[in-house]
Amino acid sequence: MIHHMLSTLLNKLWSGWGTLAGVFLIFALWQIGFEAFGSLVLPAPMEALGRLIDLVALPSGFEYILITAKRAFAGFLLASAFGISFGLIAGWSNTLSLLCKPFITVALGVPPIAWIVLALLWFGGDDGTPIFTVFISTLPLIFAGALQGVRMREKELDEMAKSFHVPLIQRFWQVQAPQIVSYLFPAWATALGLSWKVVVMAELLSSTRGIGAGLAEARVNIDTASTMAWIVIVVGLLLVIEGMLLNPVKDYVEGWKHAE
């Protein structure tokens, strides 16, 4: 038991050092780019980080981050609710799964910029445009993950649980759900990352508040340092979400794979 805990801790520390090394490598390449092309093309990393601190210290800058986070999570949670529900229903029906395949292909093929234009016509420049764009862009991924999880589960385990007269609800939570989540989670994690990219794009074109609006202001002012600062904020938030939310959830839902 102690050996297993130490091994898990060392693996996590090694993973953390690997991530940190990757971040340092990015900053090193960034510094090389600054020295090669100048501050107008690529500002110095320390200049961008200083501008980041200034932006976060401003009430409006912190408000922009909260607004973007609210819109991204609102669209993502709506997509999760609808995508998982309909994906599970379609996965248990051969007819529905076949009917849904063309819709998934079409939905995945439409670029987010097209949804932004439609959302602008429907919702204007309010919260509805970025939230809807995140919802419609991430919904197909989550739906496909849930559907695939149901279709690819090991039916022999279901039959074995039935033979032991395990109740239906218990059979779903303890036998089927872990298998479904193992397929759903990668799509869900990808959709969460995509939601941040899409919401910033939608804000850039449609909103006067949020990180996307901050990027639009930096573009108008030809402020490369502020542009890079906003980009660092978005990437940093994604890394925090991955480390504090996605990885613990992944370890929990995939624990059954490593159970002895």
TrEMBL record:
Residues 65-250 form the ABC transmembrane type-1 domain. It is found in: Cell membrane. The keyword Transmembrane applies. It is a multi-pass membrane protein. Gene3D superfamilies: MetI-like (1.10.3720.10). GO terms for cellular component: plasma membrane. It comes from the Bacteria. Keywords: Cell membrane, Membrane, Transmembrane, Transmembrane helix, Transport. One of its GO terms (biological process) is transmembrane transport. Belongs to the binding-protein-dependent transport system permease family. This is NitT/TauT family transport system permease protein.
